[in-house]
Amino acid sequence: MSLTLTFTGKDILNDTICLPGGRPAYTLHTTKGVRGRKVTTVTGSPTAFINWRKRYLEIGSQMLPIDAVKRRAGGWLARKRMWLWGETGYELHYSRQQWSAKNPSGAVVARFSPYRMRIFRKSDPAQIVFLYDFPPAEAAFLVLVFIYSEIRRQDKQRASSAASAGAASSAGGGGGGC
């Protein structure tokens, strides 16, 4: 059984995620401070949190330090990440503008496609597709992991773009001289 959850807006940190009939499954709200993101609250069943500063996930009453549940898969330099939910590990991989989560046998169990802005046609909303039926806490775990991974990817992409823009302007590309 597959289930597609669709985000209603562009900002995955402050949005509503809906079931196929349009009924809300989760609501996300992120608090910010002077130093950036504090906590993302995912209201649903169960309620879950990403504490960005203290680096932990919370699902129901279970606190999961990110360093304890996130591991590199395939060696130190590998780009794939293993996220542990109890005894089950999910390998996350980003390719072709989407995230996929694989179970230990290598089967894709869920996908996350970020929001894609289009100019000449309707933009594609962010979506999570569960290809299997998950217990609510495990589904919330995968929602948190996809959101955390995508936001970290966007942060790195922005930092890389800013660094290359700064390098270009300091290389004399500003014009105005003789």
UniProtKB/TrEMBL annotation:
Keyword annotations of the record: Membrane, Transmembrane, Transmembrane helix
Residues passing through the membrane, by range: 129-148
Domain of life of the native organism: Eukaryota
Protein name as catalogued: Tubby C-terminal-like domain-containing protein
Lineage, broadest ranks: Eukaryota, Fungi, Dikarya, Basidiomycota, Agaricomycotina
